[in-house]
Automatic annotation (TrEMBL):
Keyword Oxidoreductase recorded: no
Protein name: Na+/H+ antiporter subunit C
Main location: membrane
The organism of origin for this protein: Pseudothermotoga hypogea
Pfam families: Oxidored_q2
Subcellular location per the Swiss-Prot or TrEMBL entry: Cell membrane
Top-level taxonomy: Bacteria, Thermotogati, Thermotogota, Thermotogae, Thermotogales
A GO CC term attached to the entry: plasma membrane
Membrane association type: Multi-pass membrane protein
Domain of life: Bacteria
Keywords linked to the UniProt accession: Cell membrane, Membrane, Transmembrane, Transmembrane helix
Length: 112
């Protein structure tokens, strides 16, 4: 279990380094998406409880897993996808207008 937690944290950190170091705007967005995936994966790994069943009423089961964290994770996934879609759309418009995906050049063109 600790190996999976380590891999999730490593994914988050590597993606963060990508966000900081990459100059390509699309790569930054991709790294942000990978970082979000790492965070969601870490939450799923940390919320797993052994011996509990899914919240479906059946005889003989006394301990149910709480459905609220599961709903929160699904909501985070949907919001992450919507944010990613909007970011890619805005980037496409920006690239059509400025003809570049390099963040340094975008900042230069925005300033003057």
């Amino acid at each position: 279990m600790r190996v999976v937690e380590f891999l999730c944290v490593a994914t988050i950190l590597i993606a963060f380094v990508g966000v900081v170091l990459k100059r390509n705007l699309l790569m930054k967005i991709l790294c942000l998406d990978v970082m979000t995936t790492g965070v969601v994966s870490l939450f799923v790994v940390l919320s797993r409880r052994f011996g509990e069943r899914v919240p479906i009423v059946s005889e003989g089961v006394e301990s149910y897993a709480h459905p609220v964290p599961q709903a929160a994770i699904v909501t985070a996934i949907v919001i992450g996808f919507a944010t990613l879609s909007l970011s890619v759309t805005v980037t496409m418009i920006l690239v059509q207008r400025l003809q570049t995906v390099d963040t340094v050049e975008i900042e230069k063109k925005a300033r003057g």
